[in-house]
């Protein structure tokens, strides 16, 4: 079996117990992960070999607590290059991805029952992580994605009046998970200034920033804020490979020194040492921008295929915005359509989507929605998935989609895509 056979084999099976998500049969639009076929195995193999060659046994020893210096330098240069600002290795602490960075920050900045300001819809696993650290998410704003300065001020003042402590504000301004939205520069500036005036540290999580489909996104919050006001959480999971488990906190030398003293590092040294050395080699190579360019084109095609078929199939029952990057489309359900129904019906038509509820910091807040990820499947498959989703929306809206299906099915067979759902024995129209 060649390397490329192995890559294409994973989505349809493979040895159990290797990967976190083993896709079941059907079109899985639930997970927001890089597509198996876009994971750069050859690139990583070459740069890991280069790291071993260069550092020898030091590449396999317990690593420096804050991460190996070449990785910290490369991550500082990447952040400065992609986002602006002036960062050096001293400002960077290497983590095992963004999730680990967030867990560390909960420990460092949190205290029992303190509040974390969050967007009204927010990354579900970050919300879980905060709760697990006994921090209480506090959703801010009328919009699912963008809190205004006035809303931030009102929320913080009300919390403080009630005697609550604010640990930090967790914000994702770019290709937001789950809504796919990106804040304008003015919205970013307003939030950064409001938080600085309130004395609230901003934790900016921006894993999809480099996955833009047109122009690069506006400056990051850390590039706009004054030093120490914003802590950036960055990861290579989405742009390169989550299996490397390499990310970082960029927050200044004082924060780095504080994290270095945490017992976890004193005991075991830095996280993902060989992965970080691999990343150091890769980030400083011209192969990295070439890889980014390749995956941007791929993900853009996937987005277009999904949204094209969703719109062409006349999707009633939902409104959505076209994301300019990242992995997600947020379907805001209209006309009384319930996320439960869309989740169930689309699964019957063969496409699995994610209920919006876990993304709500406050249960029931903000209306019904489902999150759809277009990252995992090729464009041809996503075109079929979009149809399945459109049918489920139509059916959930109370219309009988049978007539629409007849035309779509004929087109589907001639287009060579996966067969419609009734051919899988799931649910005919
Ligand atoms: C907003 C956000 N933050 C963090 C993560 C997790 O990143 P990592 O794999 O680096 O832990 C994800 C992954 O879905 C994400 O969407």
Furnish the topology, listing elements before pairings.
Blueprint: H1 3-9, E1 27-28, H2 41-55, H3 69-83, E2 92-95, H4 97-109, E3 115-119, H5 124-132, E4 136-140, H6 149-161, E5 166-171, H7 185-198, E6 202-205, H8 221-224, E7 230-235, E8 247-250, H9 253-260, H10 263-268, H11 273-283, H12 287-312, E9 318-319, E10 328-333, H13 339-348, E11 351-352, E12 354-355, E13 369-373, H14 379-396, H15 402-415
Parallel strand pairs: 1-11, 3-4, 3-5, 5-6, 6-7
Antiparallel strand pairs: 2-8, 7-8, 9-10, 10-13, 12-13
Helix pairs in contact: 2-11, 3-11, 4-5, 6-7, 12-14, 13-14
The structure holds pyridoxal-5'-phosphate (PLP).
Give a short overview.
With 429 residues, the protein is α/β, with parallel strands linked by helices. The chain has helices spanning 3-9, 41-55, 69-83, 97-109, 124-132, 149-161, 185-198, 221-224, 253-260, 263-268, 273-283, 287-312, 339-348, 379-396, 402-415; strands at 27-28, 92-95, 115-119, 136-140, 166-171, 202-205, 230-235, 247-250, 318-319, 328-333, 351-352, 354-355, 369-373. Strand 5, helix 7 (185-198) and strand 6 form a beta-alpha-beta unit.
Structure description:
With 429 residues, the chain is of the alpha/beta class. The protein has two domains: 3-30 and 289-424, Aspartate Aminotransferase, domain 1 (Alpha-Beta Complex); 42-285, Aspartate Aminotransferase, domain 2 (3-Layer(aba) Sandwich). The protein is built from 15 helices and 13 strands. Strand 3 (115-119), helix 5 and strand 4 form a beta-alpha-beta unit. The chain is globular, with a radius of gyration of 22 Å. Residues 1-9 and 403-429 have low confidence and may be disordered.
């Amino acid at each position: 079996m060649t390397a490329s056979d192995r890559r294409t084999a994973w989505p349809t099976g493979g040895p159990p117990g290797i990967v976190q998500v083993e896709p079941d049969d059907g079109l899985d639009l639930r997970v927001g992960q890089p597509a198996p076929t876009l994971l750069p195995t050859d690139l990583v193999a070459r740069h890991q070999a280069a790291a071993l060659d260069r550092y020898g046994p030091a590449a396999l020893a317990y690593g420096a607590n804050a991460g190996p210096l070449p990785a910290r330098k490369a991550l500082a240069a990447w952040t400065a290059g992609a986002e602006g600002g002036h960062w050096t290795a001293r400002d960077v602490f290497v983590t095992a991805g963004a999730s680990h960075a967030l867990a560390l920050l909960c420990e460092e900045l949190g205290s029992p029952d303190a509040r974390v300001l969050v967007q009204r819809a927010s990354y579900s696993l970050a919300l879980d992580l905060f709760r697990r650290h006994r921090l209480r998410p506090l959703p801010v704003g009328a919009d699912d994605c963008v809190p205004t300065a006035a809303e931030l001020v009102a929320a913080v003042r009300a919390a403080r009046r009630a005697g609550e402590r604010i640990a930090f504000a967790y914000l994702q301004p770019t290709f937001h998970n789950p809504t796919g939205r990106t804040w304008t520069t003015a919205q970013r500036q307003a939030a950064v200034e409001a938080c600085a005036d309130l004395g609230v540290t901003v934790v900016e999580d921006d894993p999809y920033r480099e996955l833009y489909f047109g122009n690069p996104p506006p400056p990051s919050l850390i590039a706009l804020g004054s030093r120490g006001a914003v802590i950036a959480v960055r990861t290579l999971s989405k742009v390169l490979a989550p299996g490397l488990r390499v990310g970082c906190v960029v927050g200044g030398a004082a924060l780095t020194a504080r994290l270095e003293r945490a017992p976890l590092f004193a005991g075991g040294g830095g996280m993902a040492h060989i992965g970080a050395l691999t990343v150091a080699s890769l980030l400083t190579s011209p192969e990295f921008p070439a890889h980014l360019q390749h995956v941007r084109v791929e993900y853009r095609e996937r987005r277009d295929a999904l949204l094209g078929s969703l719109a062409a199939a006349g999707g009633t029952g939902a409104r959505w915005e076209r994301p300019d990057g990242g992995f997600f489309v947020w379907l805001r359900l209209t006309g009384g359509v319930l996320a439960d129904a869309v989740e169930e019906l689309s699964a019957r038509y063969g496409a699995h989507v994610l209920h919006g509820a876990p993304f709500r910091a406050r249960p029931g807040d903000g209306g019904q929605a489902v999150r759809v990820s277009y990252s995992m499947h090729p464009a041809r498959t996503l075109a079929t998935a979009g149809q399945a989703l459109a049918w489920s929306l139509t059916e959930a809206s109370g219309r009988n989609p049978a007539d629409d299906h007849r035309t779509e099915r004929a087109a589907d067979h001639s287009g060579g895509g996966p067969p419609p759902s009734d051919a899988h024995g799931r649910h005919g129209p």
